[in-house]
Amino acid sequence: KRRLQPTKMAASSAQAQAQAHDRRLVPKPQAWSEFLQSLNQRFQRVRHNNNVNNKVFISYAWPEDPAECAWLQARLQQLRNDLEAVGFEVFLDVGSMREHLSAEMQRNIAACQFGIVVCTPRYKQRTAPGAATNAARELQQLLARQLEKKCQIFALRLEGEFDAAVPEALREFLVREATAPADYTLALARAEAPLGLLPALLGVAHNDAEYTQALDQLRRAQLTNMPDPDPRFTGRDAILHTLHAQLQADQAGPQAIVQQQQQQQ
Q1: What pTM was estimated for this model as a whole?
Q2: What confidence tens digit (pLDDT) does each residue in 240-262 have?
Q3: How many C-alpha atoms does 228 have within 13 Å on its Cβ side?
């Protein structure tokens, strides 16, 4: 990995662009936090009962462009924070380096139970056959540990088209992509095939009732630009069921509910 030092202006601009994208239709922060907390409680039970190693290693390739580098690192730091909220101990080289690069990487790969490989066009380029790069060495070590059944690999496509971003060696380990910033949270949480990263890490089956209930609550809080429910809005179940059916139709058009004012007696 090339160690670039992006300028403060480039980093600020890239993060502002990422935040602008992320303000679209996404779960409310409080709902996302509560969802992660529910997974944390579940994960702690699993760890206690099965003595599970919770260490995660994130492998990626630094982009050459400083603004792109800042944008990618902002997303990876969000990913690290979310995984830590669930209860994983995550190594990401941004802010985690304590010793020489090669020794630090080798030590953390050897200790990890899960390897998350972030697939981007730059990563595929840096891990091409014969490449003598840190990213290529990380990938080879992770694949060797996967072959020895010492860790599980999950490949997450975060940017770029499939063929341009995903190395051949990683295609069998793919989880649901999270290429659109606005889809990041729901893509990570999805329990339908291909699995999102969170249920894949937790070993959640698609029909897991506890996880499905938590995910349903998250989906109901999907829109950040919607007000909280009005407790006085009652007695309209028939209208709402009709509206729900119409919105589920293949060619649903715009729908509206009009409240008629009652005349004062």
Answers
A1: 0.73
A2: 778 888 887 766 677 776 665 55
A3: 4
